[in-house]
Amino acid sequence: MGRRAHHNRLRLRAVARIVETGGIVAYPTEAVYGLGCDPQNEWAVHRLLALKRRPIHKGVILIAADFTQLAPFLQPLSPDDQTRLAATWPGPYTWLVPTRADTPYWLRGRHDTLAVRVTAHPLAAALCRA
């Protein structure tokens, strides 16, 4: 492994540790920089929403490295919906997908859908995998 790759892995681990401990991080995406946190950490999501001045009832966008990371929050997709999403992912496309009944309010807001995206950005995807 090259020196630069090793340095990047160390940085990625440091950023992942911030997320794991309830922190908020900035990360690049296909179009803009995003702010993110652990979506399963209610306290972190509330802090993120306060920082962005975004009302909780609007919900958030979840990004992932692959669909399997999103599946626990979503109702099963029809074959047609699976095909539609697969045609645009990974990439800069966000879809509203019906949530499972137990998807936390702090993620979906007052909606029965969740905004989800499988990112094509290598750094954002690596952070999602970390």
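^ that was protein a. below is b, sequence first then the tokens
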Amino acid sequence: MKSDEINNLFSQFEAAASELEGVECWSARELQSLLGYSKWENFEKVIQKAKDSCNNAGEEVVYHFPDVRKTIPMPKGAEKEIDDILLTRYACYLIAQNGDSRKEEIAFAQNYFAVQTRRASWIREMPNSGALITT
């Protein structure tokens, strides 16, 4: 993967993130296209595998994968409500781990969410460590 492709994907993943009640999250519908899945049905299978992994790890699936409804615009000014899922960083990491690794977007996401998860962990640990980090 070329440097400009990596930078572009990084920007897209960052732009897709939102915050709800202090928790960074992504819309499954938006993540679907970022990960190169054209059909929701195919992406739902990956989400289910990730939910199974989450459950097997002893985590609360409903916390990391809460179901939501969202309104999307339709032709001629109409709107439609569709199912969506808010995904925590951990949920996105599990989705990337369970996705089709032949897709460049999945390979990128595996690294992106692993690094972001580790960075968040460091930030949480810093106040307790007494360490001073300078750049």
